[in-house]
Design a protein that fits this description.
Elements (H helix, E strand, L loop, with lengths): L12 H10 L6 H10 L5 E4 L6 H12 L12 E4 L3 H14 L7 E4 L5 H10 L3 E4 L1 H9 L10 E4 L2 H6 L3 H10 L5 E6 L4 H10 L4 E4 L6 H4 E7 L5 H14 L5 E5 L2 H13 L4 E4 L5 H12 L5 E5 H4 L9 E4 L6 H8 L9 E7 L4 H11 L5 E2 L5 H4 L89 H4 L35 H4 L8
Parallel strand pairs: 1-6, 1-7, 2-4, 2-5, 3-4, 5-6, 8-13, 8-14, 9-11, 9-12, 10-11, 12-13
Helix pairs in contact: 2-3, 3-4, 15-16
Bound molecules: adenosine monophosphate (AMP).
Length: 523
């Protein structure tokens, strides 16, 4: 395919100026193909994932098409549906960025933000309405919004919508819109349900498919570090060493559990790192503030859970650290995909313990190569005791005599995926296989639907993880905190080990930083 410049895509002068101001020199493949079609008003089916530049692929032609005409109160001229609040907010930011030369009213309808503010914006007349499906229907059902003026509909990340159970909502919304409209539809994958949606609601679309952004193999250096102890304090120490020894501009540090995100944040802060956290228990305002601080470089380390970080566009991350090996290999791909974006160099480091053998093998399968170790690699024996309490080097006394506590690798104890303390997962996108089979059909009465918290939650097909009402195992029976000090083995010197957590041997003297409430929002 011939490479086109922005000037050749049919964009207006105002939009081209904004693109130039954004510092983009060449359109990405999805932009090259989608923009010339979209500016003419034709429907587009874009098969592309985050990181390909797809947002500008629909925002830029929309800006051109919205240059003429005016919005009327409560009758938006265009509608963008996104699966999560964060993605909706990111699209809104794109309108700000690329729409600097336009005077368009952009309204954002997402959960967690006051209805009144949103209504005021709608009343002024929205040229662009960006919404999560649930919140949009809420407004519609309250009679606050009329959809009959929508000229352009964008459905972003349709496969994630499917995964989150939003398809019935999407269908309802599509039926409320005028049939004579333009539809720009984006999905990373095309499962049958999505194909059906496309067949029902798109009109002779031009299908555009782009390759995944640069594969991990070429731009991301992936390394693994074996942590013989497997204890959290030891892992934190290893992590700090890695951060200090690497040229880390900014990094995301992934934990499997949100509780560990909070503990890690506290520890990093205590050790003088400029860190923030992102996890599902934070309210929307704190999450956005943390993300903004990270984007602006005010925070250089971001401890995060998969749920909180999925799908977010955080450019220029130099490093990804997996404090925990993710339980699913597709999470590994998503995590490390936060670095090495848009052809840039990136590095990922994964801490591995005895109990991560199976997860490690899965990752090796998915990356198609054996793990590259820094430091002493584990022996076969080290990794052959996965799932059992392992006593490495009987003479070393590292783990002997310690109080038994629940460990991540205790597969018999670990709650099944999606239950227990693990944070509710957002759905897969990109190439990952959605786990739809496991989801029960369950209708929730609209009035009783709890306020969406982590993301816009599925309405009709909640994920099994969302059966959170069930008492979690952790909560059901008291268990020792992982960071509680463990009994000091006899004849073993107290370990102070850098003080990243509760060092062994401190008895009841838990370090103060672990006792203080965790502060999640940046100051
Ligand atoms: P997206 O796939 O829309 O999430 O975009 C991924 C990232 O690529 C965002 O940070 C954009 O700002 C950036 N981007 C979009 N288009 C271009 C372009 N033509 N050149 C360079 N970066 C771009």
């Amino acid at each position: 395919m011939q490479t086109l410049t922005f000037a050749e895509l049919g964009l207006s002068a105002k939009v081209q100026a904004a693109v130039e101001a954004a510092g983009y020199t060449n359109p990405t493949p999805i932009q090259q193909q989608a923009i010339p079609v979209a500016v003419t008003g034709r429907d587009v089916l874009g098969i592309a994932q985050t990181g390909t530049g797809k947002t500008a692929g629909f925002v830029l032609p929309m800006l051109c098409r919205l240059e003429t005409g005016r919005a009327r109160a409560r009758m938006p001229r265009s509608l963008i549906l996104a699966p999560t609040r964060e993605l909706a907010a990111q699209v809104a930011q794109s309108f700000e960025k690329y729409g600097t030369n336009h005077r368009l009213n952009v309204a954002l309808l997402i959960g967690g933000v006051s209805f009144d503010d949103q209504l005021r914006k709608l009343d002024r007349g929205a040229d662009v309405l960006i919404a999560t499906p649930g919140r949009l229907l809420d407004h519609f059902q309250r009679g606050k919004i009329l959809m009959t003026g929508v000229e352009i509909l964008v459905i972003d990340e349709a496969d994630r919508m499917l995964d989150m159970g939003f398809i019935p909502d999407i269908e309802k919304i599509c039926k409320l819109l005028p049939p004579r409209r333009q539809t720009l539809f984006f999905s990373a994958t095309m499962p049958p349900e999505i194909q059906r949606l496309v067949a029902s609601f798109l009109n002779d679309p031009v299908r555009i498919e782009v390759a995944r952004p640069a594969t991990t193999a070429t731009t991301i250096t992936q390394k693994f570090r074996f942590c013989p102890s497997g204890e959290d304090w030891a892992k934190r120490e290893v992590l700090r060493d890695l951060i200090r020894s690497e040229n880390v501009k900014n990094a995301i540090i992934f934990c499997n559990r949100k509780r560990d995100v909070a503990i890690l944040l506290k520890s990093l802060t205590k050790h003088g790192f400029n860190a923030g956290a992102l996890h599902g228990d934070m309210d929307q305002t704190s999450r956005m503030a943390t993300l903004d601080a990270f984007r602006e470089g005010k925070i250089s380390l971001l401890a995060a859970s998969d749920v909180a970080a999925r799908g977010l566009d955080i450019p220029d991350v130099s490093h990804v650290f997996n404090y925990d090996v993710p339980w699913a290999s597709d999470d590994y791909v998503h995590r490390i995909g936060r670095t090495g974006r848009a052809g840039k160099e990136g590095a990922s480091f994964t801490l591995v313990t005895h109990e991560d053998s199976k997860a490690l093998r899965d990752i090796e399968k998915i990356i198609g190569a054996p793990a590259v170790w820094i430091g002493e690699p584990p022996t076969e024996e080290d990794l052959s005791f996965s799932g059992k309490r392992r006593r490495r080097g009987a003479g070393r006394g590292e783990e002997r005599g310690r109080g038994r506590e629940p460990r991540r690798g205790d597969r018999d104890r670990r709650p099944p995926r999606g239950e227990g303390e693990r944070e509710r997962r957002e759905p897969q996108h990109a190439d990952a296989q959605p786990r739809r089979e496991a989801r029960p059909q369950q209708e929730r009465p609209r009035e009783r639907r709890p306020e969406r918290h982590e993301t816009e939650q599925p309405r009709e097909r909640p994920r099994p993880e969302q059966r959170a009402e069930r008492p979690r195992r952790e909560e059901a029976r008291p268990q020792p905190r992982r960071d509680e000090p463990r009994p000091q083995p006899r004849n073993e010197p107290a370990r102070t080990g850098g003080g990243g957590g509760a060092p062994v041997g401190l008895g009841d003297h838990v370090p103060a930083f672990l006792k203080k409430a965790v502060r999640l929002a940046p100051r």
